[in-house]
Amino acid sequence: MINILDCSFCAALFLPHEKSALVKALFAKFADDDELAVPVQFWDEMTGLLLSALARNRLKHADALEINRLLSMYHLTTEVSFAGDYTGQLLDLAGLYGLNAGEAAYLELAIRKKGKLGTLSGKLKAACIKAGIETLL
Hints:
This protein is of the alpha/beta class.
């Protein structure tokens, strides 16, 4: 089984969120043969989130480095190959479901890989439902 994870979903592992316990429980249930995948911009988003938490004094630099180390233990597959007209596909998905480019990239990956999407974004979850993509929560 392939699971596509977005930044909001993974951030709930280490930043307080109302669904943090649910996300942690799902991570604990992932089997060794479950593939966990992210689009390439995930890492930029995660870095931005960590920088924001640092700026707000919610984390210390050592904490941010530890979070990054812990994330690497999940062996997230970073999707860097793009099939066909990737930009065109993102434009189509964004227009169809009212998403931004980043959200469309997660949806495109879930559609292309026929995977479930882990997100805490209500807008992205609604787009998944309309597109027939299962979500983890």
